Amino acid sequence: MENPTPIPRALLRQNIYALLALVGGILAFLGNCLTTLSIIVPGLPFLCGTISGIFSLLALALGITGLVQVKKSREKGRGMALAGLLLGILGVISACVIPFVGTALWAALGMNIDNIPGLTIP
């Protein structure tokens, strides 16, 4: 009976940058969902959009790094790196668009902080 050829260790490992890119992309997506829901509160879309944009840029950088390392070292994780990269791209686009849509919506409805019932600013 013939012994099977051992599998190189690099093929058994997951690339950590690919995994982090996917996690960053998911966090950016959740931040964008929160930004969309927060349009009803003035000023909050800019805060949530900024946080989401940071996670999106992080997912972009880690996704590119993960893809390069997966190609070089033949580790697993190409799909995770691509998913993180795509979520990062979508996150950057939406982090730039959503706050302005929220502000335009507030302006179109003629709303400002004074119109919110129960909210008093000293």
Word description of this protein:
The protein is an all-alpha fold and 122 residues long. It has one domain (13-110). 71% of the residues lie in helices and 0% in strands. It has helices at 9-12, 16-37, 44-73, 78-108. Helix 2 runs antiparallel to helix 3 (44-73) and helix 3 runs antiparallel to helix 4. The radius of gyration is 21 Å and the shape is rod-shaped. It starts with 8 loop residues before the first helix and ends in a 14-residue tail after the last helix. The model has no long low-confidence stretch (mean pLDDT 77).
Helical region count?
A: 4
**Helix- and strand-based class?**
mainly alpha
Radius of gyration over all CA atoms, rounded: 21 Å
**Portion of residues within helices:** over 70%
Please, what is the average pLDDT?
Answer: 77
What's the β-strand tally? Answer: 0
The description of the largest β-sheet is: none
Strand content: under 5%
Give the tags:
122 residues; mainly alpha; 4 helices; 0% strand
Q: Could you give a short description of this structure?
A:
With 122 residues, this protein is mostly helical.
Topology:
Blueprint: H1 9-12, H2 16-37, H3 44-73, H4 78-108
